[in-house]
Amino acid sequence: MSDAGSGLDAFVRAWAREIIGTSYVPMTRAQTVDFLRGRADLLVGSLTAETFDAGAGYAVGTTLARADFTAPEALGRTIALMKARFLADVGLSTAVPTDADSAAEADRRLAALIGALAEGFARAVRDRTLDAQDDMRRAALRAKAAAERAVRDSEARVLHAALHDQLTGLPNRALFTQELARTLAAPPAPRLAVCFVGLDRFKLINGTFGPAVGDRVLVLVAEQLRALADEHDCLVARIGGDEFAFLVPDTTCTDDALKFADRALRRIAEPVCLDGRDVPLSASAGVLERSADGGDPEDVMRAVGVTLQWAKADGRARCAQFDPDRNTGDVARYALSAAMPAGLRNDEFVLFYQPLVELVSGQPVGMEALARWRHPVRGLLSPNEFIGLAEDSGLIVGLGLRLLEKACRQAEAWRWRGPGAPFVSVNLAVQQIRDPGLVAQVADVLDRVGLPPELLQLEITESAVMSIDDHSLGTLRALRRLGVRLVIDDFGTGYANLSYLCDLPVDGLKLAATFMQGLDDDPDCKRSALLDAMVAVGHRVGLSVTAEGVETPAQADRLRRLGCDLAQGWLFGRPVPPEELFS
Ligand code: C2E
Ligand code: CA
Ligand code: CA
């Protein structure tokens, strides 16, 4: 060590060697050497200062740690190196005799510097650890807040998706029902209205223009209805494929609600042009306006849904208003319809018989079989109460076949009473005629029961005849080939083109009871003239003619004079159970 400068350099290089690699420090070797050189200069300055201050040691310890030399080895090796050679390298060692006092002072100062360096280092490392912990704590808090926000956002997104319609962005049925429940629980006004709007024949639009156009129509309609809802400060939702709902929270009367619904229908009916094509649109509405407090929202939704169906059933493009009586009737009919299959299984459907009398002889030559339902709770039900329901549900086909067999067994039983046994006349519903299995079923019944086919007559209403297609016409011909007689029931009520009488394979007409009205009071009235003509028309095309609804001897007289063949009505006997006949 020739001089303090080069000695210090050697110390600095040695120092760098010792501490590089003890921790990860983002400095090159040269930078490290530079950095340590600065620290070493400080230490030297302090050792040689006139008045000594160990603060330089503290500062060096601190900067070491702050420069990321934080490993305990960095401190340990620094101290060891300083003790071993610092004084010698900088020319202050006792080994280099200057004067003993100053050498001792240098030792003392070095010890103090080392102590302060260790303290500065320790303090800085501790501060850094605390800072790092603090940073970590803060980062953790930030991450937690971000995560919570993300969860909240995604929950909000999921909730929004669950309560809104994807296509139109409108609230959906769930949200609408929620809002309705809230309004019913805490009504803002004394009365409210719920209005459902359904597009008419939307399936046809989808089918004609394609589902993409269908979707665009729905979006357009949604926009129109949203604008209307905004104007009236009420809620609109899409509650089904082509159905929308309004909650009008402050109506004063039903008229209010109907006017509102009408406005919605008129908006929808405005012409829509998509891709240069006119898409005709109309809609129907169901409206329920009521006092706002209380009630089950689901009940309200159901009632308005039913009301919308009324509007559609009544001809579409109109508003219907909820009617509790009509609803009660619907509910009762639905219950009755639902009870029918069990009624069929339990053999609750029976036949009453009403005589068909030959006007010339006054003899009963046939019996019309008329259905009755011995309902376990409601008692004896007339066919007007359940045949329509059976037609709607399709059960009429099974029921009709069961009744046909019953009637044939009854006719077969009469046959055993002796000669001149009456034929039985059974009513057929239009679905039965369309059923491809009918001919085989009739043949099978006749065969099993052993009834000659000429003792079976089948009645088909004129309105059913009007809807007959080629296939059903084939069915009628095949029935006739079996030897069964066919008559047109309620003739004169179906407004048919009379030319069909020439083409249909039928044997007779049953004139509707309406033609009997008025005959008593005025035999020359127009109705009477019509009756004359009907009987004549029937006979001219080779058909037998039966008059229905004959209640008085005067009517029977008149019919006899007209040459009408058979008559049926209260005058000759009401429909009764078979055991009451011939008694
Ligand atoms: P319909 O075939 O025209 O039957 C005649 C209806 O007129 C019967 O009513 C009968 O009770 C009633 N009637 C008979 N004489 C008189 C009279 O002098 N004056 C008045 N005002 N009415 C009279 P019902 O039994 O209630 O049957 C009603 C309708 O139900 C029948 O009309 C028929 O269309 C249908 N129906 C009855 N049974 C069956 C069945 O088994 N199958 C099918 N598909 N329909 C049936
Ligand atoms: Ca009939
Ligand atoms: Ca009839």
From TrEMBL:
Residues 190-324 form the GGDEF domain. CDD domains: EAL, GGDEF. GO terms for molecular function: cyclic-guanylate-specific phosphodiesterase activity. Residues 333-583 form the EAL domain. InterPro entries: Cyclic-di-GMP_PDE-like, EAL_dom, EAL_sf, GGDEF_dom, Nucleotide_cyclase, Rev_trsase/Diguanyl_cyclase. NCBIfam families: GGDEF (TIGR00254). This is Diguanylate cyclase (GGDEF) domain-containing protein. It comes from Virgisporangium aurantiacum. The lineage of its organism: Bacteria, Bacillati, Actinomycetota, Actinomycetes, Micromonosporales.
